[in-house]
Design brief:
Blueprint: H1 2-17, E1 33-35, E2 38-40, E3 49-52, E4 56-57, H2 65-71, H3 80-87, E5 110-111, H4 114-126, E6 132-134, H5 144-154, E7 158-162, H6 179-191, E8 203-208, H7 220-236, E9 240-243, H8 253-260, E10 268-270, H9 274-279, H10 281-289, E11 293-296, H11 313-325, E12 332-334, H12 354-366, H13 370-385
Parallel strand pairs: 3-6, 6-7, 7-8, 8-9, 9-10, 10-11, 11-12
Antiparallel strand pairs: 1-2, 4-5
Helix pairs in contact: 1-6, 1-7, 4-5, 6-7, 11-12
């Protein structure tokens, strides 16, 4: 592994400056948080939502029904009524027909309006919100220039993601590329910028780390992506945010892969852990004991079929309080995972405001202290988003 990372760093440095004979050092971001506007001190972030989408295209193609099947996310529109719902303009009369888990309407699954994004983020800011981590990774139509403009307009720091999501959303070229080649792209996104924009990613994620059906293991491309994320994290000091819907108590393959690559567990976020809070809290505590951050990032959903037992916010609050009492308050993160129009305030949802407007006050009434809330919303995000010293430098 050591030789591979050293080779990666040297290759990237040469690539970044264009076949130069000298290999400049990869920029050292140690102690900083990297926003779309550049590096900042972590104390400037304020309360932070750790898993959101501001611009995203989460659709699956009708031309590839096999991807719908393997993703397990929703039935393929193979009946006239499903196809009609998928193809209809998104108007208020169909909101009630759409499930928040993954609304089966093409227009609902695209967030691309800067004005709407700024309005939604301003509503969050007015409630005392600080930074937002935007985890639309490669293949989900991440939009660095739009993120930069919205951050400037609203004054809200935005941390942009990199890496790859689940197999069904990966570009075709991932199949043939090597792990080191994929890692080099992630490192370049962090140290140089996305394409020619100069706008840099500040976290690796969300990385698709497990298929959504319990009987479907990670694919070879997902395993390759997780390994690439680890190598890039070690080379840059970034943290990794995993997209997961794991079965509590089962062997959690992504963490084993990251450990094989030498990734420190206290630089890893395990996302979408809602289901485990009601089914296996001991398992979550075992993960937290390894230093892993537990991300409760589906707050504010209505009825949904994302995964069994995922959406009881009261149970989540009770579980978080138990984790705090057991000494794991420093391993908790929260967010909404907004990724569809019908979650936005404009379309009748909560947008990015549910945590501040409802969930945090509820936690306080349930017994969480002001210090507990500050730890979850400010201290923990600041720690995990701050770049560590790279394991190796060239």
């Amino acid at each position: 592994m050591t030789g591979l990372i050293a080779f990666l760093l040297i290759s990237l440095a040469v690539w970044a400056v264009g076949n130069t004979t000298e290999s400049p050092a990869v920029p050292d971001l140690t102690g900083k948080v990297l926003t779309v506007n550049g590096p900042v001190d972590p104390v400037t972030l304020g309360p932070t939502l750790m898993h959101e989408h501001i611009f995203i295209d989460n659709r699956l193609s009708l031309d590839k029904p096999e991807k719908w099947q393997t993703s397990g996310i929703a039935p393929y529109p193979d009946t006239p009524s499903r196809l009609e719902l998928w193809s209809r303009p998104l108007t208020p009369d169909i909101y009630a027909q759409l499930e928040l888990g993954w609304p089966q309407n093409a227009e609902a699954l695209v967030l691309d309006d800067e004005l709407v994004a700024a309005e939604e983020i301003n509503a969050y800011r007015e409630l005392g919100g600080g930074a937002i981590v935007e985890v639309s990774s490669i293949g989900l139509n991440r939009s660095p220039e739009q993120l930069h403009r919205v951050s400037m307009q609203t004054g809200v720091p935005i941390i942009m993601g990199t890496g790859w999501y689940l197999d069904e959303w990966m570009p075709d070229d991932v199949t043939e590329r090597s792990i080191n080649d994929l890692a080099a792209q992630i490192v370049r996104d962090i140290t140089v910028g996305i394409g020619l924009t100069g706008i840099r990613a500040g976290i690796i994620g969300e990385v698709g780390a497990e298929a959504q059906l319990p009987d479907m293991p990670m694919t070879l491309r997902e395993i390759k992506s997780v390994r690439a994320a680890a190598r890039a994290a070690l080379a840059t000091g970034s943290s990794i945010s995993l997209h997961t819907f794991f079965a509590p108590g089962d062997p959690f393959t992504p963490l084993d892969i990251l450990a094989e690559e030498g990734m420190p567990m206290d630089r890893v976020i395990v996302g979408h852990v809602h289901a485990a809070i009601t089914r296996d809290l001991d398992y979550l505590m075992a993960l937290a004991a390894r230093g892993i951050y537990l991300e409760f990032d589906l707050l504010g959903y209505r009825e949904s079929n994302v995964v069994e037992d995922v959406l009881d916010d009261r149970a989540v609050a009770e579980g978080i309080l138990t984790l705090i009492r057991e000494g794991f308050g420093r391993r908790i993160l929260v967010s909404h995972d907004v990724y569809s129009k019908i979650q936005l305030r404009k379309y009748g949802g909560h947008g990015y405001t549910f945590v501040h407007r409802y969930f945090l006050p509820y936690l306080r009434r349930m017994g969480a202290s002001k210090e507990d809330i500050n730890r979850i919303m400010i201290e923990n995000p600041g720690h995990i988003l701050t770049f560590a010293t790279p394991i190796l430098k060239n």
